[in-house]
C-alpha cells in the first residue's frame, strides 16, 4: 500500500514515514512544502513531492495520483495566527479531502484534535477556539464524504519516546500521548480495515497498540 503523508515534515509525519519505510507492506510518499525538507525522507528511501498546502486542490490531487491512502497530519502549529489555522487546519484539510476524491483515493486518515465536538468549541479558551472550530468542520466535511475515513483524536502531544501502550475509545479521559505512539496508531489503522468509518480518541494507556485498535 502506497501512502501519501500530508504534513510529512511535522513531528508525527516524520515518525510515520520512518515506520512506513520499515514496514513490509507499506510505502511512503512524503508531501513537503519545499525541497530543502527532502533530505530526511530521501535518506529513508521515501518518495517526496513538493506541494504547498495553501495552493489549490489540483497540485494536491496530482501528488495523490497512484497512492492507496492519504494521511493528513498537517497543522499550522501553536504559534501561528487564526489566518494560518483557517488556511491549513481547515482549508488545507478540506482541499486534501477533495484532492483524494479527484485522484480516486478512497482511504483517508485524519489526525484531528482531542475533542472537536461543538461543546468543545464553546468550552475552549478564546485563543484555542478557532483551532477547535477548524478541526470540527474539517472532520465533519470528511464524514460527509463517501471516503473510507478514520479520524484519530490524540491527547496532549509530547516528544517522549513511545510506550506502545494506549487507551482508545470514542471517548477517553484526557491524558498525554507521545507523537511516536500516534504514528504507530496510524500504521495500525492502515493495517486494519475495521477502523474504516471509525472515530476515536487515543491517549497513553495499558493496552498494546495493535490490540487496542483491534478492539475498536
From TrEMBL:
Annotated organism of origin: Mesobacillus maritimus
Recorded superkingdom: Bacteria
The protein, known as: SDR family oxidoreductase
Domain NAD(P)-binding: 7-192
Alphabetized InterPro entries for the sequence: NAD(P)-bd_dom, NAD(P)-bd_dom_sf
Amino acid at each position: 500500500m502506497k501512502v501519501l503523508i500530508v504534513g510529512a515534515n511535522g513531528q508525527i509525519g516524520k515518525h510515520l514515514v520512518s515506520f512506513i519505510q520499515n514496514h513490509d507492506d507499506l510505502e511512503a510518499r512524503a508531501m513537503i512544502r519545499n525541497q530543502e525538507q527532502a533530505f530526511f525522507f530521501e535518506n529513508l528511501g521515501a518518495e517526496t513531492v513538493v506541494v504547498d498546502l495553501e495552493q489549490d486542490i489540483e497540485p494536491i490531487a496530482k501528488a495523490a495520483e497512484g497512492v492507496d491512502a492519504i494521511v493528513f497530519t498537517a497543522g499550522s502549529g501553536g504559534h501561528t495566527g487564526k489566518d494560518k489555522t483557517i488556511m491549513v487546519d481547515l482549508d488545507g484539510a478540506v482541499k486534501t479531502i477533495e484532492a483524494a476524491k479527484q485522484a480516486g483515493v478512497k482511504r483517508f486518515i485524519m489526525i484531528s484534535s482531542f475533542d472537536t465536538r461543538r461543546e468543545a468549541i464553546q468550552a475552549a479558551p478564546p485563543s484555542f477556539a478557532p483551532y477547535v472550530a477548524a478541526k470540527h468542520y474539517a472532520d465533519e466535511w470528511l464524514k460527509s464524504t463517501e471516503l473510507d475515513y478514520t479520524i484519530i483524536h490524540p491527547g496532549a502531544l509530547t516528544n517522549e519516546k513511545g510506550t506502545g501502550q494506549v487507551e482508545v475509545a470514542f471517548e477517553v479521559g484526557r491524558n498525554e500521548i507521545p507523537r511516536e505512539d500516534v504514528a504507530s496508531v496510524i500504521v495500525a489503522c492502515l493495517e486494519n480495515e475495521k477502523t474504516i468509518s471509525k472515530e476515536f480518541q487515543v491517549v497513553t494507556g495499558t493496552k498494546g497498540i495493535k490490540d487496542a485498535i483491534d478492539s475498536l
